Amino acid sequence: RLFNHTHPSTPWIVQEALARFFSEGHWDTQARKMARSLHKRHDVLLECLQLEMGNHIDISGVFSGMHFYLNVHNGMTQAQLLDSARKHDAQVYGTARMWFDKAEAENAVMIGFSAISPEDIPKGVQALKNAWF
Fold it and tell me: What dihedral angle (degrees, nearest 10) is formed by the CA atoms of 117, 68, 85, 123?
């Protein structure tokens, strides 16, 4: 009754399509497909990082989402790591916004895997290796 006279911001046709998407089981199918795809990317990235950089990095957060944290042991600061990666056409992210109650790790970067195809991961890791070592 409270919202009886308000107009939804989402058109009714979109709401109906989404309702059918869920009720006909398409959401479950899509979620399973995405989970398989992300799991493959996760495994390929983890394997490539360990193979190419081994003891020169520490990897954390491997089961916490669609990214990992890398502590890189090469003497570079986070700013230098980011800049060098960018110069080698590789994208990694700073971690400053991830820490609230402690200082960020000076040699840490975040690397995501949700937007890269499994076939491109080895090339990207090789670019990072070239940038950092």
Answer: -30
Length of the chain: 133
Nearest 10 degrees: Cα torsion 51, 74, 123, 42: 60
Question: Does pTM surpass 0.85?
Answer: no
Residue 47 has pLDDT above 90, yes or no: yes
- What amino acid is encoded at 98 in this protein? M
Dihedral sign for Cα atoms in the order 74, 99, 86, 113: positive
Q: What are phi and psi of 112, to 5 degrees?
A: -100, 160
pLDDT tens-digit map of 8-37: 688 889 999 999 999 999 999 999 999 999
